[in-house]
Amino acid sequence: MMREAPNERRLRRTLLLAIACTLAAVHTPPCAAQPPLEFDVASIKPTAAGTGNTTMGFDPDETFRTTRAPLNALIQMAYKIKDFQVSKRPK
Fold first, then answer.
1. CB 55 within 8 A of CB 66
2. 33-42 long-range CB contacts below 8 Å, 24 or more apart?
3. What phi, psi does 56 have (nearest 5°)?
4. Where are the domains of the chain?
């Protein structure tokens, strides 16, 4: 049996590595399409106290809208809790 020269061994290793990488790339399934990111948006604006009635409800497109609702009431409604369960709330 004939011994390989160091350069031949290095070349053989490099070729085997290149073939292995090519096969791995060919057999790797493509990434699944990611759905677009979605998130909710809230817009909170201050209003002068005592300027009208509080309204709460959903629009036909299921968007929740409220007018002149205290933040404390919105927190209680969102988390289904009572007034005494909210601490350090804005006054």
1. yes
2. none
3. -140, 140
4. 55-85
